[in-house]
């Protein structure tokens, strides 16, 4: 990864990242990303690196410990660390960089609960998780859409049925809305915009999980189908750094206390 990429180079980079994530995960993917220059790009072009890498993690279903890098870059921590991160419900976890000795703790991810931590600047990390959630939501939508086109009932694909179309459409609207929130330039109130972006992405991903499960029907519950892995993943990522419900309440409480709401976007 290098700075100052043109559009052709970005397309090539995205293709390379997608293929890399399709063939590796965990520490192996951490190593592959390091060789591609992830640390340099995160430092020099975070607005490009974070959406690209985290969105692709969601779309491919891979995982890596790169959320640690985003937090450490933000707070000026030493590379290679595992900073404690708040989790929904008031608990704290760390994202281990090595493969756990037993089963992964949460949703196939190497998260381990720790006694507690210290609150820090989490704006960029929340946006990163937001892009990961959006990527996972798009992956689920793609699976449900393809199933709707392939599955035939009463002599026609179920994609022709209005109820199925409505679920897919509602999912797409939620995803597009979350992406728009994530793409808002951070000028004023960066903490507030990142919290709202993470909340919107979490809600969109959970909406995708619910609707896509309904479209897929019974096959979506099976271990053979990959939908269940995305559902488990988004349920965990929604909770990391605060889930959609908690973050929305946090923002609402703050706005009520101050008696006004800042302008989030210049229209």
UniProtKB/TrEMBL annotation:
<dbReference type="GO" id="GO:0004361">
    <property type="term" value="F:glutaryl-CoA dehydrogenase activity"/>
</dbReference>
<dbReference type="GO" id="GO:0033539">
    <property type="term" value="P:fatty acid beta-oxidation using acyl-CoA dehydrogenase"/>
</dbReference>
<keyword id="KW-0285">Flavoprotein</keyword>
<dbReference type="GO" id="GO:0046949">
    <property type="term" value="P:fatty-acyl-CoA biosynthetic process"/>
</dbReference>
<keyword id="KW-0560">Oxidoreductase</keyword>
<feature type="domain" description="Acyl-CoA dehydrogenase/oxidase C-terminal">
    <location>
        <begin position="121"/>
        <end position="242"/>
    </location>
</feature>
<protein>
    <submittedName>
        <fullName>Acyl-CoA dehydrogenase</fullName>
    </submittedName>
</protein>
<dbReference type="InterPro" id="IPR052033">
    <property type="entry name" value="Glutaryl-CoA_DH_mitochondrial"/>
</dbReference>
<dbReference type="InterPro" id="IPR036250">
    <property type="entry name" value="AcylCo_DH-like_C"/>
</dbReference>
<keyword id="KW-0809">Transit peptide</keyword>
<dbReference type="GO" id="GO:0050660">
    <property type="term" value="F:flavin adenine dinucleotide binding"/>
</dbReference>
<dbReference type="GO" id="GO:0000062">
    <property type="term" value="F:fatty-acyl-CoA binding"/>
</dbReference>
<dbReference type="Pfam" id="PF00441">
    <property type="entry name" value="Acyl-CoA_dh_1"/>
</dbReference>
<dbReference type="InterPro" id="IPR009075">
    <property type="entry name" value="AcylCo_DH/oxidase_C"/>
</dbReference>
């Amino acid at each position: 990864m290098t700075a100052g990429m043109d559009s052709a180079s970005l397309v090539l980079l995205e293709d390379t990242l997608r293929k890399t994530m399709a063939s590796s995960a965990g520490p192996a993917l951490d190593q592959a990303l390091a060789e591609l220059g992830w640390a340099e790009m995160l430092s020099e072009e975070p607005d490009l690196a974070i959406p690209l890498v985290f969105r692709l993690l969601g779309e491919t279903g891979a995982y890596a410990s790169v959320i640690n890098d985003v937090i450490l870059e933000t707070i000026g921590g030493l590379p290679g660390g595992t900073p404690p991160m708040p989790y929904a419900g008031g608990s704290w976890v760390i994202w281990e960089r090595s493969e756990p000795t037993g089963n992964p703790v949460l949703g196939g991810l190497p998260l381990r609960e720790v006694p507690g931590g210290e609150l820090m600047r989490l704006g960029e990390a929340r946006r990163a998780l937001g892009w990961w959630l959006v990527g996972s939501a798009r992956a689920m939508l793609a699976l449900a859409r393809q199933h709707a086109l392939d599955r035939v009932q009463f002599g026609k694909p179920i994609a022709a049925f209005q109820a199925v179309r409505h679920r897919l459409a509602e999912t797409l609207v939620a995803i597009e809305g979350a992406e728009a929130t994530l793409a808002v330039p951070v000028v004023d109130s960066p903490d507030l915009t990142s919290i709202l972006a993470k909340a919107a992405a979490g809600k969109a991903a959970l909406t995708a999980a619910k609707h896509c499960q309904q479209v897929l029907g019974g096959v979506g519950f099976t271990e053979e189908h990959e939908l269940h892995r995305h559902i488990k993943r988004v349920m965990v990522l929604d909770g990391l750094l605060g889930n959609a419900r908690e973050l929305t309440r946090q923002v609402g409480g703050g706005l009520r206390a101050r008696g006004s709401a800042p302008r989030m976007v210049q229209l």
